[in-house]
């Protein structure tokens, strides 16, 4: 093969040769891609599960096991094989006591949509932690929502109390200027990253207005799982 | 830049080393600028990108070299692209399997290895004319040169822009990171600085060679 490296330039290549080469290369390509997909699929699934669990146990302090639920028509039910509604994860401690629930929330940030997982404690009726799942905020500025100590401190016990009427929150979650937080439902924004901070506040408020009353009303479903 | 040989190259140490220095894809040939500027905001991203590109380069060029007498020139670009895209897809799955965090950090740039002109350029200019052995060695050299260049940028940008190296904190609490370095403009600054250094070195070496030749002529 290596010694006959004198492909004639003047002779036209038969169409069959081109088809044969492209066909063969495409077949090899197909085999390799499908093979690597099948080999890596279980590992990728495992990684995704691990990522959810790592985030989950971070936003629900004290939880060591989880169960998957979903919200369908304002009711909470254990999730089946096929997702039907909004996913909701419940975290339990070693005694099977409910420690909190976690949900996903999303809103447009400075660059792209920010997706977070937040933990809600139905007993203190507050948000106990957030974990950014996906964001494309400016490094060093907007991406501080994940690291800035003062900002993360907002979510140690951020009040999200359901309104007495059973609809929405008693006090909406609102962002305030850095250093002017006075109420437990306010979020102390990062100075210089107002848009990213506001996005987090907005997504938490929107999600809580909608789901906190449902969680409180269906608490027995979540508690009686063990 | 050494002229590419039309005849089969005998594999020597130079086949490998050329990619690192004389024909460094980033610092000399200025190829593959997109990943060079985009993903070198941390050393680990730079390293992962360099290794992924090296794998794709070596594997795809090996296949091109093995099939070089079998690929009609009319369909060669289409064939190269299919071959390169295959290995990029495999790398894409492999990185997802290794670490999702790394995969998210590298973003769309893994898929964009398909259009890295360094790889297509090597396939067209080298692998399609050379034996398998020389192609693998040369590909490894070019890949090492690319990884080295990316690391040069990544290390400087991470240290200055975040005060860390491979995620380890280097300075104390009071270090104020120079954020611009991990933002896109920092990529241009650091690349410019490295190019300056490399060209200065090259100029100096060439000057030294000229001086030496002059001295020898005088004798």
Key terms:
heterodimer, A: about 230 residues, alpha+beta, 2 domains, seven-stranded antiparallel β-sheet, two-stranded parallel sheet, 4 helices, about 35% helix, about 25% strand, disordered N terminus, B: about 220 residues, mainly alpha, two-stranded antiparallel ribbon, 8 helices, 2 strands, about 65% helix, about 0% strand, flat
Number of strands of chain B: 2
What class do helices, strands and sheet pairing of chain A give?
alpha+beta
Task: Report mean pLDDT of chain A, rounded to a whole number.
Answer: 85
User: For the CA atoms, what is the radius of gyration of chain B?
Assistant: 19 Å
Strand content of chain A: 15-25%
The domain count of chain A comes to 2
Order of helices and strands of chain B: HHHHHHHEEH
Number of helical regions of chain B = 8
User: Biggest protein-protein interface?
Assistant: A-B, 30 and 36 residues
- What sort of overall outline of chain B do the alpha carbons produce when their principal axes are compared? flat
Helix/strand/pairing category of chain B: mainly alpha
Number of structural units classed as domains of chain B: 1
What is the oligomer described by this structure?
heterodimer
Low-confidence stretches of chain A: 1-5
Which segments of chain B are poorly predicted (pLDDT under 50) over 5 or more consecutive residues? 1-5
State Rg of chain A: 25 Å
Approximate helicity band of chain A? 25-40%
Beta content of chain B: under 5%
> How many angstroms does the end-to-end distance of chain B come to?
30 Å
């Amino acid at each position: 093969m290596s010694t006959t490296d004198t492909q004639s330039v003047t002779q036209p290549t038969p169409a069959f040769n081109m088809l044969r080469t492209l066909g063969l290369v495409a077949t090899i390509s197909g085999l390799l891609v499908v093979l690597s997909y099948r080999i890596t699929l279980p590992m990728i699934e495992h990684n995704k599960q691990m990522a959810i669990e790592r985030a989950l146990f971070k936003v629900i302090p004290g939880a060591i096991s989880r169960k998957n639920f979903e919200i369908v028509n304002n009711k909470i039910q254990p999730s089946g094989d096929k997702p039907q509604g909004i996913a909701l994860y419940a975290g339990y401690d070693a005694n099977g006591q409910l420690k909190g629930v976690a949900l996903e929330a999303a809103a447009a940030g400075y660059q792209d949509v920010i997706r977070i997982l937040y933990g809600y404690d139905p007993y203190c009726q507050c948000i106990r932690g957030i974990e950014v799942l996906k964001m494309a905020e400016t490094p060093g500025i907007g991406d501080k929502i994940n690291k800035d100590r003062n900002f993360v401190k907002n979510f140690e016990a951020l009040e999200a109390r359901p309104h007495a009427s059973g609809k929405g929150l008693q006090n909406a979650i609102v962002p305030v200027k850095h250093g002017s937080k006075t109420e437990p439902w306010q979020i102390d924004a990062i100075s210089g990253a107002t848009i990213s901070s506001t996005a987090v506040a907005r997504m938490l408020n929107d999600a809580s207005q909608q789901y906190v009353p449902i969680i409180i009303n269906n608490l027995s479903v979540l508690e009686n799982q063990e | 830049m050494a002229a590419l040989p039309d005849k089969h190259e005998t594999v020597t140490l130079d086949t490998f080393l050329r990619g690192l220095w004389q024909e460094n894809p980033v610092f000399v040939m200025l190829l593959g600028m997109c990943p060079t500027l985009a993903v070198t905001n941390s050393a680990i991203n730079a390293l992962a990108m360099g290794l992924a590109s090296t794998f794709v380069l070596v594997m795809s060029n090996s296949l091109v070299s093995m099939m070089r007498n079998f690929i009609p020139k009319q369909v060669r670009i289409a064939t190269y692209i299919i071959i390169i895209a295959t290995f990029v897809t495999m790398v894409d799955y492999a990185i997802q399997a290794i670490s999702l965090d790394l995969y998210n950090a590298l973003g769309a740039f893994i898929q964009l290895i398909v259009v890295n002109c360094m790889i297509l350029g090597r396939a067209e200019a080298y692998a399609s004319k050379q034996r398998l052995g020389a192609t693998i060695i040369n590909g490894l050299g070019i890949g090492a040169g690319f990884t080295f260049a990316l690391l040069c940028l990544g290390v400087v940008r991470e240290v200055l822009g975040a005060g860390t190296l491979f995620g380890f904190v280097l300075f104390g609490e009071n270090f104020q990171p120079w954020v611009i370095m991990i933002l896109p403009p920092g990529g241009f600054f650091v690349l410019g600085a490295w190019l300056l250094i490399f060209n200065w070195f090259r100029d100096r070496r060439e000057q030294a060679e000229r001086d030496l030749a002059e001295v020898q002529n005088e004798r």
